[in-house]
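Weekly sync, protein design subgroup
Attendees: M.S., D.O., the rotation student, P.L. (late)

Item 1: inverse folding check
M.S. brought a backbone from last month's batch and wanted to see whether the design step gives back something sensible before we order anything. D.O. pointed out we never logged the input encoding, so this time it goes straight into the notes. Structure tokens as presented (132 positions):
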């Protein structure tokens, strides 16, 4: 069966860094765009970043631009989220998700990959807590 397993979360001080990983199995990883979402306590889940199947197209939420970097290694079936300059507002459960839609342009990635409904599979999440 399809499994997406996040890891790398934890407790970090403001200004620190974390690298999240999402190991995927049970599907052809290189055929799926991948996204990261997060959900803070009492809030709806929100989009963070997405990367196309080849890694050639990337899209970030405004909150992630300049601080977070999404990447993927298709040989390892893994997607990463490098998070730098973390703030207390980044505290949330972080989820990775897999999307079988092939985004043929950056604009299509931007309009499609930020929607939860675009994704077919989800991980269980990893907690990130940023202390002030």
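Designed sequence read out in the meeting:
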């Amino acid at each position: 069966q399809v499994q997406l397993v996040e890891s790398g979360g934890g407790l970090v001080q403001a200004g620190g860094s974390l690298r999240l990983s999402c190991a995927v199995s049970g599907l052809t990883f290189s055929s799926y765009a991948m996204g990261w979402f997060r959900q803070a306590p009492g809030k709806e889940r929100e989009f963070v970043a997405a990367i196309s199947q080849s890694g050639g197209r990337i899209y970030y939420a405004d909150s992630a631009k300049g601080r977070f970097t999404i990447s993927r290694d298709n040989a390892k079936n893994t997607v990463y989220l490098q998070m730098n300059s973390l703030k207390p507002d980044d505290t949330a459960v972080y989820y990775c998700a897999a999307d079988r839609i092939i985004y043929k342009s950056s604009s299509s990635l931007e309009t499609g990959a930020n929607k939860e409904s675009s994704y077919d599979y989800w991980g269980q999440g990893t907690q990130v807590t940023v202390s002030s």
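Discussion: The two ends are 40 Å apart (CA to CA). DSSP finds one helix and eleven strands in the chain.
Action: P.L. to compare against the previous round before Friday.
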